[in-house]
Arsenate reductase (Nitrospirillum viridazoti CBAmc), 115 residues
Amino acid sequence: MIVTLWHNPKCSTSRRVLADLQAGGHEVQVVEYLKTPPDRAALVDMLAALKARPADILRRRGNDDLLANEPAGGYGDEALLDLMVEHPILIERPIARSPKGAVLCRPAERLAEVL
């Protein structure tokens, strides 16, 4: 089974998920999404696979400067998509996708849901 992993090698959770996939003998398609950011269509597709909205995968930690102008009620889906496409660091990681579905692997143990 091929598992696609939206990965950030600087993230310990992402490294752990990748190591778990490799140790399990899975074929892994690694997408370093900060080097090769998803376009809007790819992001929308991944959100559909996750059955999630943009706010569900928004990485707030360490991104106060990018979110400083957030409206009082928060960003809507379209505005968040625009921000995530422009600043992929706002996408929480790691995200694993297999033929069984997709999951944000926070915590890393959630990987089992798609294996």
